[in-house]
Amino acid sequence: xxxxxxxxxxxxxxxxxxxxxxxxxxxxxxxxxxxxxxxxxxxxxxxxxxxxxxxxxxxxxxxxxxxxxxxxxxxxxxxxxxxxxxxxxxxxxxxxxxxxxxxxxxxxxxxxxxxxxxxxxxxxxxxxxxxxxxxxxxxxxxxxxxxxxxxxxxxxxxxxxxxxxxxxxxxxxxxxxxxxxxxxxxxxxxxxxxxxxxxxxxxxxxxxxxxxxxxxxxxxxxxxxxxxxxxxxxxxxxxxxxxxxxxxxxxxxxxxxxxxxxxxxxxxxxxxxxxxxxxxxxxxxxxxxxxxxxxxxxxxxxxxxxxxxxxxxxxxxxxxxxxxxxxx
Length: 328
Fold this sequence. Notes:
Pfam families: XdhC_C, XdhC_CoxI. By secondary structure, the protein is of the alpha/beta class. The protein is built from eight helices and 15 strands.
């Protein structure tokens, strides 16, 4: 979202009108669900997607018409192929799309975008609130009405769309080698907050990890003195060897982290598991660990393994936030 806010602010500073297009409700089989964003200017789409195909084509056309106006607009799209369908797409679902016109002449737009950027930088939970009709979007720290991270509510006689951001945890990556260098840019692009830790200073160079929030040179045997892991956090163990893996996994198992993943062959992970079991960790505790880490996709190279790990973290995040959809 930070990239989206910055792009909108840059265009506003350049006196360029844009339209923020958002799926605020989706039912049935749809290519993108609630919370998909796209930015459109008078000459077409410039960022993001709401799913492609005829839905996106029609939404871009509508947004181009609205750019520069003071109007907000909501339209329902039928993605089916039946008698009452509109778009002729094989998906078969329905979506409600909100078009918010970010006029370059409106000072309220600039104020909102600066506030949104500050909220994204802070890294604490916040709500993005988009009005269906009149008014300017705003940032709120808390919403008590309704359920879920994406909600349609009614306030002061008009509907609003509210979405929560930064509700997920941090990803602590232990080990700054080739795998971490491939993994961080992918996770950053997916909206994960990443920190890399290694006991070798040359592997905590910030320049090695595009998109990383923080790096730190640490003693793997003294992590409890450095980190305060929260239940929503992810721990990814990709150190250079089984001894360091064991040190980090020992620490990880004593934390409330929602995800612990350890890289390595089955032989290596079995060795670490047996070592920790001999120290008194129970089978139930050890079963919390994803080892070998990642989803099985036949990955071999660091880049391929990074994709398998990222896919697993997406899956865990979707499960724990209630955002994972079943296939129709």
